Automatic annotation (TrEMBL):
<dbReference type="Pfam" id="PF03063">
    <property type="entry name" value="Prismane"/>
</dbReference>
<feature type="binding site">
    <location>
        <position position="295"/>
    </location>
    <ligand>
        <name>[Ni-4Fe-4S] cluster</name>
    </ligand>
</feature>
<feature type="binding site">
    <location>
        <position position="46"/>
    </location>
    <ligand>
        <name>[4Fe-4S] cluster 1</name>
    </ligand>
</feature>
<feature type="binding site">
    <location>
        <position position="476"/>
    </location>
    <ligand>
        <name>[Ni-4Fe-4S] cluster</name>
    </ligand>
</feature>
<feature type="binding site">
    <location>
        <position position="55"/>
    </location>
    <ligand>
        <name>[4Fe-4S] cluster 2</name>
    </ligand>
</feature>
<feature type="binding site">
    <location>
        <position position="261"/>
    </location>
    <ligand>
        <name>[Ni-4Fe-4S] cluster</name>
    </ligand>
</feature>
<feature type="binding site">
    <location>
        <position position="333"/>
    </location>
    <ligand>
        <name>[Ni-4Fe-4S] cluster</name>
    </ligand>
</feature>
<dbReference type="GO" id="GO:0050418">
    <property type="term" value="F:hydroxylamine reductase activity"/>
</dbReference>
<feature type="binding site">
    <location>
        <position position="69"/>
    </location>
    <ligand>
        <name>[4Fe-4S] cluster 2</name>
    </ligand>
</feature>
<keyword id="KW-0560">Oxidoreductase</keyword>
<dbReference type="GO" id="GO:0051539">
    <property type="term" value="F:4 iron, 4 sulfur cluster binding"/>
</dbReference>
<dbReference type="InterPro" id="IPR011254">
    <property type="entry name" value="Prismane-like_sf"/>
</dbReference>
<dbReference type="GO" id="GO:0016151">
    <property type="term" value="F:nickel cation binding"/>
</dbReference>
<keyword id="KW-0408">Iron</keyword>
<keyword id="KW-0411">Iron-sulfur</keyword>
<dbReference type="GO" id="GO:0004601">
    <property type="term" value="F:peroxidase activity"/>
</dbReference>
<keyword id="KW-0533">Nickel</keyword>
Length: 635
């Protein structure tokens, strides 16, 4: 059938009807058209890393069981997996590098539109990195910090990534040192992995996977650079009220979607839009409405309260409303199809980064030096496009839900400190030890249409909160939850178990300064902000006086899709966490690799993958993993 119900997002469902009526092709059609997907690729046993290939593992035994060079299934599967991790690490780190370039331009005096919004975060980070803060100007301190970050990208001396090291507790630092997976530079590790996995090099699956773990730790280092520097430049998120789903697109306003991941430009677009209301009024609109998609949306939601229009699998739907005047994209998770859909409407797609262009779209190169000017140009493109709207084509779903976001670790710590100022994190760990909470789960990751969009996110979430798990969420998992109206205080009464409910109420009562009730789920940010989750685990391990494998904390990526998600899951395991993944990675072609990721990883790092596609089963397995840890903590 055309467009079967492959989403549970009510806003997206409404727009799918429009797509069908107007015969506009979307990701949901293409998913169907791709079935059945290649069995060799799915199992990870297709190799095309040299021109003798492509080779496939066709038989159990004999010459057909290997590639032309003799590479066996375990070699091919692990090389492919490790290359995905390298791709993820490269992506997150490229994002971080861009934030770093902007920060650096600012301290050099070449980016006048940026400033240090959070000196507190700068001082804290500087101290952790060993940068002196006594009697020094913030600009000078920040300069030293950016230099260390640059070293982290390119260091060749045998010293570990400074940002990563500053994030880790001692036990993890030692573990990574002893297992030889501590990266010394991000760029160096990604390059090394490409070399390690090239034709005729490493074919030992254990050595390859350990290389992958090093790559994943570089990814985490990159994420942490991205998160911390963004916090310094744009502010540390604090609880903030906003709304989500496609109904936030306002027919009376000039609507601009900012889509992708990097806040450096989109932050400026928000500021520019606030100043350009009069220009919008001249074309008959009431103002300029910025809405977010994917992680750029999450970044702006967390810091500015910008509406979150939608998440990855439904990105085309924002254009189908007919009321989106421009979509400004930066990098990652942007479907090439947005331009094709936009051509059916008046919507302008504008790319802004040198490494991300799309045929037919306009490109406005973003420069840190001229950021505000560039941002104004972008807003003006949308204002111009507004004039070309076709009122016949406008149909915006009514779906919009209130939400509370902005839970950085600083914000959480602040909330906990109202109960225990000296040991804030003990508020959380005590609640686990005394049975009020079952533990913490970090829900992360993407949409993957192997199951209906958002279905697994929501099903797993409901099961976890019912069982008194405190859920923190990032990326498109947070998006799914927000769009469904479950990131609101109202959802607490409807879905939380008694323990979680009373925990949240206690926090609320101790925090009368909050202008809103606490939500069912704590939104901790974009995908690079998975590093905030790791920061929280470290704080919990410290508080409990144990290493991470004993902390009742798990991660879940119910609809993992991007290479970045593969990297995140892998560092989660290395960090010592049970990591549920609801979309099978391409490793089933090798029992050995499957065993390494589920068993050996556990023996060495104390974390392991849980591959479970069925959401109810997945929730049960996650709860079991938490329960086991809590039980061990108590005995
Ligand atoms: O970095 S969750 S689909 S938008 S990769 Fe992409 Fe996945 Fe969404 Fe954000 Ni993360
Ligand atoms: Fe085939 Fe080996 Fe070349 Fe891969 S590296 S394509 S298995 S010959």
């Amino acid at each position: 059938p055309k467009n079967p119900l492959r989403t549970i997002d009510q806003g997206a469902l409404e727009m799918l009807k429009v797509a069908q009526e107007q015969h506009i092709e979307t990701v949901f059609d293409r998913f169907v058209a791709q079935q059945p997907q290649c069995g060799f690729g799915y199992k990870g046993v297709c190799c095309r890393i040299c021109l003798a290939g492509p080779c496939r593992v066709k038989t159990e035994e004999g010459p057909g069981s290997k590639g032309i060079c003799g590479a066996t299934a375990y070699t091919i599967v692990s090389r492919n997996l490790v290359r995905m991790i390298a791709g993820g690490a490269a992506s997150h780190s490229e994002h971080a590098r861009h934030v770093l370039h902007t920060a650096h331009a600012m301290v050099e005096g070449n980016a006048p539109d940026y400033e240090i919004k959070s000196p507190e975060k700068l001082h804290k980070l500087a101290s952790k990195l060993g940068v002196s803060i006594l009697n020094r100007e913030d600009q000078e301190i920040f300069k030293d910090v950016t230099e260390i970050a640059y070293e982290d990208f390119g260091r060749y001396q045998d010293r570990p990534l400074a940002f990563l090291e500053s994030l880790l507790i001692e036990q993890r630092r030692n573990k990574f040192k002893h297992t030889n997976v501590m990266p010394r530079s991000i760029d160096g590790t990604v390059t090394e992995l490409m070399a390690q996995t090239a034709m005729g090099v490493d074919n030992d699956p254990v050595n390859l996977i350990f290389g992958g773990i090093k790559g994943a730790l570089s990814d985490l280092g990159g994420e942490y650079i991205g998160t911390t520097l963004s916090d310094i430049l744009f502010g540390v998120p604090e609880p903030i009220v906003s709304e989500s789903n496609l109904g936030v697109i306002d027919p009376k306003m000039v609507n601009i979607a900012v889509h992708g991941h990097n806040p450096v430009l989109s932050e400026m677009v928000v500021t520019a839009a606030r100043k350009m209301i009069d220009e919008a009024k001249k074309v008959g609109a009431e103002g300029v409405n910025i809405v977010g998609i994917c992680c750029t949306g999450n970044e702006l939601l967390m810091r500015e309260g910008v509406y979150l229009a939608t998440s990855s699998a439904s990105q085309e739907m924002a254009i189908l409303t007919g009321a989106l005047d421009a979509m400004v994209v930066d990098i990652q998770c942007i479907y090439p199809s947005v331009q094709q859909v936009a051509e059916c409407f008046h919507t302008k797609i504008v790319t802004t980064e040198a490494i991300m262009k799309t045929p037919g779209a306009q490109h406005i190169a973003f420069n840190a030096e001229t950021a505000m000017e560039d941002a104004q140009k972008l807003v003006r493109i949308a204002i111009e496009a507004y004039k070309n709207r076709d009122p016949q084509k406008i149909s915006i779903p009514n779906e919009r839900h209130k939400l509370v976001a902005g839970f950085s670790l600083e914000a959480l710590t602040n909330i906990f400190s109202k109960i225990n100022p000296n040991r804030p994190i003990s508020v959380l760990t005590d609640a686990i030890l005394n049975g009020q909470l079952k533990g913490v789960v970090q829900m992360a990751g993407c949409n993957n249409l192997r199951r209906p969009q958002d279905e697994s996110h929501i099903a797993i979430l409901k099961e976890l909160v019912k069982n008194d798990v405190l859920v923190v969420a990032t990326g498109c998992s947070a998006g799914a939850i927000a769009k469904a109206g479950l990131m609101s205080p109202a959802a607490v009464d409807a879905y939380a178990g008694e323990g979680l409910k009373s925990f949240l109420k206690t926090l609320e009562n101790a925090n009368p300064q909050l202008s809103t009730g606490l939500p069912l789920v704590f939104h901790i940010g974009s995908c690079v902000d998975n590093s905030r989750g790791i920061d929280l685990v470290m704080a919990m391990a410290n508080e409990l006086g144990v290493d991470v494998p004993k902390v009742p904390y798990a991660a879940s990526a119910p609809e993992a899709m991007h290479e970045k998600a593969v990297a995140i899951g892998t560092f989660g395991v290395a960090m010592g966490l049970p990591v549920h993944v609801g979309a099978m990675p391409f490793i089933e072609g090798s029992d050995i690799v499957y065993g390494i990721t589920t068993q050996i990883a556990h023996d060495v790092f104390g974390g392991n993958f849980i591959f479970e596609m069925e959401p109810q089963e997945a929730a049960k397995k996650i709860l079991d993993a938490l329960e086991y840890r809590t039980w061990k903590l108590r005995v």
